[in-house]
Amino acid sequence: MVPLRETANSNMNGSATLDRIRVVLVRPSHPGNVGAAARAMKTMGVSRLALVQPRAFPHAEAHARASGATDVLEGASVWKSLPEALEGVVLAAGLSARRRELWLAQRSAREAARELVAAAGGGGEVALVFGTETSGLSNDDMRLCHLPVFIPANPEYSSLNLAAAVQVLCYELRQVAVEWQPPRVDCGEPATVDETEAMFAHLERSLGASGFLDPANPKRLMPRLRRMFGRVRLEREEVNILRGMLNAFKKVD
Ligand code: SAH
After folding, report:
1. Could you tell me the distance, in angstroms and rounded to a whole number, from the CA of residue 25 to the centre of ligand 1?
2. Ligand 1 centre and the CA of 238: distance in Å?
3. pTM for the predicted model, two decimal places
4. For the domain that residue 154 is a member of, what is the CATH number?
5. Is residue 51 part of a domain?
6. Of 53, 147, 157, 243, which residue has the fewest beta carbons closer than 10 angstroms?
């Protein structure tokens, strides 16, 4: 099949960028939705599906709903936890129709697509994280995501079917990816989710040891610090500097 529109400088039809995007479904409960999500992804050239604790996988219903996208379904990776599924990811978008306290500014799907494609186009691994059909993403799940993202839908009925939400995001990503050109600025390597999580654990330990944070009454210090660092989008070298500083402070009386 020939693509409808392809330009000479169209970043190889965006495929190199789209290959660095993984779609993560957290605890999907209906196998049919997993299959339909695989189909939605394939129509937009996104192929990397990751499942965290799927209720049933593999499943005949998933295969039926995937239609011709069984390669995406069969290539899906299965994980015990979200942190494992996000290993190596430099930018994770958490999809939620809801708004919660102490989140970073929510982005629309379109705005998020630009940020995600810029990170993936620059060589980083990025993730779109979707929640379970009944209750969505938990606060713990969202804490691991840099970008809270919503699909601007009917405010009176804003919850899309899981696979429909995957379709909207993959569509937006594709539109941006085919046009994307690298910016002319020098940036360092972005830190991955696992590196920043290790830094937050280090920071929490150090704050506890210094007496600044009372582990029995932590209040909202860590969520606030996470939000502050979340606005910056740390580079790997900066994470190393911060951790080196924490180690150096241990030696100060
Ligand atoms: N009842 C759940 C929503 C389940 S829909 C709740 O109240 O959160 C399944 C998933 O699709 C959600 O977890 C979310 O990742 C995505 N989704 C559905 N509608 C969305 C919207 N309007 N904006 C962003 N994500 C949405």
Report:
1. 11
2. 34
3. 0.89
4. 3.40.1280.10
5. yes
6. 157
